[in-house]
Amino acid sequence: MICGGIVAAATVASPGRTAARPVTMPQLRVQRLAWAGLRLQLPAATLFIDPLIDPAVWGAALPDELIAVDEVVGESIVLITHRHSDHADAIAIAAALKSGGTLAYAAGTPPFGELPANVRQRSCPLWEPQIFGDFTATPVPASDGYGDLQVSWVVSGGGRRIFHGGDTMMHGGWWRVGRQFGSFDAAFLPVNGATFSWRKPATDEPAVLTPKQAVAVATILGAERIVPIHYGVVGADGYSELPDPLGALHDASRRGGSSVTVLKPGEWLNWQAPPLSDHFPRLPE
């Protein structure tokens, strides 16, 4: 089996003897894109979540490097957590799907227009696993700071399971997600604790996970590591995030639990192979 670059052999029982048969599993690679975006890469498929490449969305308020999404290997899939322009960037979606593929979003989300003719749109009900080639993705509950429709995504592929939180805030569904899916190799969680002064009457209550809440969520999900997303905006009119969210995340994580891995836009996640016992249950002799 190939998992995190490691090759292993599975033992197969047969009458009178035990034979070793090599089993291969493709390695999942994950790249952080700008803002809340991800690229998940397998040898025959590329899956994007909330890609952002349009500089007009945040303007000078977001210093992130905008990572191109038009270099796709194999089948192309785009998952969207919700229709806000910083998560459902029409330019990024069209670029990622320029040669065709699938755009997936929560059931109840209005269909997207002006896409290449060979793009399939898929409306996905909560909790129903969706098969996209070598990936399986399931939309799970999330809570939007505006009260708009939003989901988070659980994605499995290459022997890994990751969680993408969009820009959700704290809500009561986390425990059910943790019970349904067990543990995660990585949870990509928003951490900037943003508040919006243009919603009246305005409050100081965070409409996005704070660093402390992200650590609590990772504990509930059983995530091995937190990779922070959705932070770094400075000077946007009516939008304010907590000061030094990364520092606060590291401070909150020192009590134990999930480790923190910070990726700059364009960087790839490097992880160790999971224990072989996670994939090869002991066979009867």
What does the model show?
- This protein has about 280 residues and is of the alpha/beta class.
- The protein is about 10% helix and about 30% strand.
- It is built from four helices and 19 strands.
- Strands 11-12-13-14-15-17-19 form a seven-stranded mixed sheet, covered by helices on one side. A six-stranded mixed sheet has the order 5-6-7-8-9-10, with no helix packed on it.
- Helix 3 crosses helix 4.
- It is globular and about 45 Å long.
- It starts with a strand and ends in a 25-residue tail after the last strand.
How is this structure best summarized?
With 285 residues, this protein is of the alpha/beta class. The protein has four helices and 19 strands.
Strands of the biggest beta sheet: in what spatial order? 11-12-13-14-15-17-19
> What does the oligomeric state look like here?
single chain
How many helical elements? 4
The best one-word shape is globular
Mean pLDDT, nearest integer?
A: 89
Order of helices and strands: EEEEEEEEHEEEEEEHEEHEEHE
Q: Which value, in Å, is the CA radius of gyration?
A: 20 Å
Structural class by secondary-structure content? alpha/beta
Q: What portion of the residues fall into strands of 2 or more residues?
A: 25-35%
Please give the largest β-sheet: 7 strands, mixed
Q: Write down how many β-strands occur, each being a DSSP E stretch of 2 or more residues.
A: 19
Span of the ends, CA to CA = 21 Å
Uncertain ranges:
1-14, 275-285
Helix content: 10-25%
